[in-house]
C-alpha cells in the first residue's frame, strides 16, 4: 500500500490516523502561509472570512423545503474538527472535488456561530496541492554580495516539484527586480529556507504564501 491507501484504511477501520496524517506534508507551509489550524477557528470572531485545511467528510445530506440538496460536512486536521455547511451551489461544486474524504483540501468560507460553537459556511473547496503555494525570497540588491546571491540561488531547488520560487532584489528609491527561479517540492524548499537563513541571516527574508 502507498501512504494514501494506508491512511484511508486506518481511518475506515480504526476511526483515526495512526502512522501519519494526510496534512503532514503541508503542515509547516500552511502555518507559514497564515492558514490557521482548525482548533484556533473556535477563537475567531463570527462572520470572519477564513481559509483552513484538512480532510473533509460528508456527515449528512439534506433536501431543503425549496427542493435543492445541501450537505453537512466535517473538516478535521491534527488539532481538531469543525462543522462545514454547504448550501446549494457550494454543495454541487464539492461533489466535483476528487479525493473527498481521504485527500486534504483547502476550505474557503465564513464563520457562523451556533450556540457558542463556530461552524463554517463554505463557499469553495479545492484539493490541496503543492502548486497552491509560492515561496518568495527577498533581499536588498544593494547590500548583498554577488557571491552570496549566487549561493542563495544555488540552494533553491529547481524543477523538483510544483512550488513556484521567486527571488526579489530590492533597490531603495529605485524599485525592485523579481526573478523566476523555477519550481521545487515542498520538502526541498523547507530545507533550502533553513540553509538560506543560516547563511544570510537578516539580509534575506523568506515568505510562504497561498496562490489560490
Oligomer: single chain
**Widest sheet: strand ordering:** 1-2-3-5-4
Shape: elongated
Number of strands: 9
Mean pLDDT: 91
What pattern of helices and strands is seen along the backbone? HHEEEHEEEHEEHE
**Terminal-residue CA separation:** 31 Å
Unreliably modeled segments: none
Share of helix, binned: 10-25%
Fold and architecture overview:
The chain is an alpha+beta fold and about 210 residues long. It is about 25% helix and about 40% strand. It is built from 5 helices and 9 strands, in the order ααβββαβββαββαβ. It has helices at about 5-15, 25-30, 90-95, 145-155, 185-200; strands spanning about 50-65, 70-75, 80-85, 105-115, 115-125, 135-140, 165-170, 175-185, 205-210. The strands form 2 sheets. It has a 5-stranded mixed β-barrel with strand order 1-2-3-5-4. A 4-stranded mixed beta sheet has the order 8-7-6-9. The longest helix has 15 residues, at about 185-200. The chain is elongated, with a radius of gyration of 20 Å. About 25% of the residues are buried. The mean pLDDT is about 90.
Question: Which features does this protein show?
Answer:
24% helix, alpha+beta, 212 residues
Amino acid at each position: 500500500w502507498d501512504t494514501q491507501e494506508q491512511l484511508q484504511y486506518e481511518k475506515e477501520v480504526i476511526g483515526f490516523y495512526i502512522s501519519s496524517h494526510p496534512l503532514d506534508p503541508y503542515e509547516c507551509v500552511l502555518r507559514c502561509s497564515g492558514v490557521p489550524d482548525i482548533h484556533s477557528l473556535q477563537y475567531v470572531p463570527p462572520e470572519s472570512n477564513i481559509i483552513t485545511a484538512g480532510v473533509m467528510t460528508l456527515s449528512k445530506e439534506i433536501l431543503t423545503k425549496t427542493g435543492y440538496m445541501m450537505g453537512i460536512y466535517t473538516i478535521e486536521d491534527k488539532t481538531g474538527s469543525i462543522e462545514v455547511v454547504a448550501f446549494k451551489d457550494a454543495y454541487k461544486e464539492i461533489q466535483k472535488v476528487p479525493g473527498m474524504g481521504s485527500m486534504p483540501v483547502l476550505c474557503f468560507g465564513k464563520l457562523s456561530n451556533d450556540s457558542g460553537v463556530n461552524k463554517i459556511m463554505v463557499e469553495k473547496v479545492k484539493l490541496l496541492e503543492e502548486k497552491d503555494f509560492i515561496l518568495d525570497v527577498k533581499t536588498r540588491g544593494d547590500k548583498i554580495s554577488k557571491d552570496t546571491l549566487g549561493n542563495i540561488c544555488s540552494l533553491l531547488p529547481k524543477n523538483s516539484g510544483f512550488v513556484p520560487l521567486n527571488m526579489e532584489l530590492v533597490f531603495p528609491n529605485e524599485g525592485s527586480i523579481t526573478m523566476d527561479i523555477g519550481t521545487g517540492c515542498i520538502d526541498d524548499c523547507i530545507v533550502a529556507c533553513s540553509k538560506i537563513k543560516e547563511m544570510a541571516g537578516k539580509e534575506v527574508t523568506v515568505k510562504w504564501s497561498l496562490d489560490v
